Amino acid sequence: MLQKELFYAAMGTGATCLATVLGAAMVFFFKKDLSPAVQKVFLGFAAGVMIAASVWSLLIPAMEMAQAQGGSALLPAGGGFVMGGVFLMLLDSLLPHLHPGSREPEGLHANWKRTTMIVLAVTLHNIPEGMAVGLSFSVAALDPSPGALAGAAALAIGMGLQNFPEGAAVSLPMRSQGVSRGKAFLCGAASGVVEPIFGLLTVLAAGSITGVMPWVLSFAAGAMIYVVVEELIPEAQLGEHSHAGTVSVMTGFLVMMLLDVALG
Fold first, then answer.
1. Domain range spanning residue 86?
2. What is the number of alpha carbons within 13 Å of residue 120 lying toward its C-beta?
3. 3, 72, 163, 250: least surrounded by Cβ within 10 Å?
4. pLDDT at residue 137 greater than cutoff 70
């Protein structure tokens, strides 16, 4: 049965990784970097998608699964959520990374190339996304009802929609800084590879311990909310007028909610 779960998880995270790769490929068609206004819209949309996915695709299923196992829903949902946020906070504090458009890197000091740290910044965002999609498809592999797979597909579609501009947000700035198109594309594509890696690792960890799935689902939700609050929403609100960022957050939330309700 674990092989089926891994296959489903690889299928889902592979699709979201492909969206990042396609976004990075925009460097072959466009010369200029994304404008600040467009970047705010994309960041806000990603934030809205991740908030809705955390609730409908992760926390609610985690609580339902915990209750079905005969336990309380509060401890796995709350405990896993806190641990996920702490995990991303530690990674954010320790891993050297540089957000596109920023001058000062974050994390521990390291004499790494600027391009490497930009890729790592986007990689941090993609870790919880890979965990979420991998777990959702793993749950769908165990649930014979069509709604389970449809719900996982809805999550993958939502993540893919926001991964496409993420890939472009890595490759286009690199190209504008003089990096070759080929290298800029590879860096943007590499930022998405972490999704299937962490998706499969999380499924393996969850499948090896009975009853741990509600904790892991909540863990992924906490990690995603940390990314949203720490990085995406503040960057989407940069500048004097923040209406574009606000509307895009609400739009992303609405799209992900409708996808989950309609398909799941």
1. 2-24+44-90+116-263
2. 19
3. 3
4. yes
Chain position carrying tokens 């499924």: 203
Q: Is the pTM of this model over 0.90?
A: no
- Asked if the model's pLDDT at residue 132 lies above 70, the reply is yes
In three-state form (DSSP H/G/I as H, E/B as E, the rest C), the secondary structure along 31-53 is CCCCCHHHHHHHHHHHHHHHHHH
Helix (H) or strand (E) holding 241: none
Grade residue 112 by pLDDT with cuts at 50, 70 and 90.
Answer: confident
Give the Cα-Cα-Cα angle 190, 195, 201 (nearest 5 degrees): 125
Indicate whether 104 belongs to any domain.
Answer: no
Taking the C-alpha atoms of residue 133 and residue 135, their distance in angstroms, rounded to an integer, is 5
Please report where in the chains the tokens 């409708």 appear, as a residue.
258
Element (H, E) at 232: none
Structural domains counted in the chain: 1
CB 117 within 8 A of CB 139: no
pLDDT of amino acid 23: 92
Asked if the model's pLDDT at residue 152 lies above 90, the reply is no
Residue 57: strand, helix, or coil? helix
The per-residue pLDDT for 3 is: 84
Q: Which helix (H) or strand (E) holds 110?
A: none
Q: How far is residue 160's CA from residue 240's CA, in Å, rounded to a whole number?
A: 30
